[in-house]
Amino acid sequence: MRDLVAQSGSPIVPGQRILDFGCASGRMIRYFEDVAGRCEIWGVDINAEHITWCQQHLSPPFNFATTTTFPHLPFEDRSFDLIYCGSVFTHIADLADFWLLKLKRIARENARLYIIIHDNHSMELLLSGAAGPAWLSDMLREFVERSGVSDGTFTMFTINRGPNSAQVFYDIDYIRRHWGRHFRIHSITQEAYGKQTAVLLGR
């Protein structure tokens, strides 16, 4: 991720503010320890247990706050230079656009947003058995057979819908058109996060 962000012309420099949106138990934020003394770095998540653990074990140098499933973030407008979401929009079945615009609100001018999604390529990997887990491959295969959805015939769909279990898939051309209305799209990188695709946006 950091290489892609730097290659887009926005390397991490001292004084920046960075947000891990959906930090869970700190699986990604902990790799920013080398810049934590020079940058202000926050992690937020809807799981209070994860945040409590992070506050106990990773703070300092990082800062953490619990959020909710309703699109609200406790930060001022144009607060962050880098916002990243590791496998978060993959699970937002509803209000994804609302959340995207919330992230735009708190992104500074020329900020970067690094967002991981399931896309057409992710579907291909799952349906072919080249990527797992097996239960998701089986569920996706059943959905595709039942619905008739195939590559290029959808904008987005959700399977296994639930508050903590939804699996959302996007057509990558839809992402280019729809997200491209609000951001510059710097790059789209397949298999950047396991089977998932990384979309790097600029404000």
Automatic annotation (TrEMBL):
One of this protein's Pfam families, by short name?
Methyltransf_11
Q: GO MF terms on file?
A: S-adenosylmethionine-dependent methyltransferase activity
Q: Where is the Methyltransferase type domain?
A: 19-114
* Name of the featured protein: Methyltransferase type 11 domain-containing protein
Instruction: Give the source species.
Output: Tautonia plasticadhaerens
Lineage runs: Bacteria, Pseudomonadati, Planctomycetota, Planctomycetia, Isosphaerales
